Amino acid sequence: xxxxxxxxxxxxxxxxxxxxxxxxxxxxxxxxxxxxxxxxxxxxxxxxxxxxxxxxxxxxxxxxxxxxxxxxxxxxxxxxxxxxxxxxxxxxxxxxxxxxxxxxxxxxxxxxxxxxxxxxxx
Length: 122
Description:
By secondary structure, the protein is mainly α. Helix content is 61%, strand content 7%. The protein contains 6 helices and 2 strands, in the order H-H-E-E-H-H-H-H.
């Protein structure tokens, strides 16, 4: 759903993407700040079962942090914010009195009426 919002340049999708990137940055930064233990640890529980906790492997956090840091200024640029600007509310159109239907609307009403009458004959 957020992808469709981004394609249609909806303002809420911009906030959603910025929030996701901030969360991703925070998650990856916490993995760098508090790395898992690198050595394996083996325990024997009271029932005599050996339990091994594997050490952490290589961290891929640094490239992800660099990508999020590179993407955030692009999203906060003037051009990007203008592209996702909220559409003005159609207040002026609502205040106007309803007018006669335009020619395409009248034509589509004729086609719909012909289709309905054809269905009723069957």
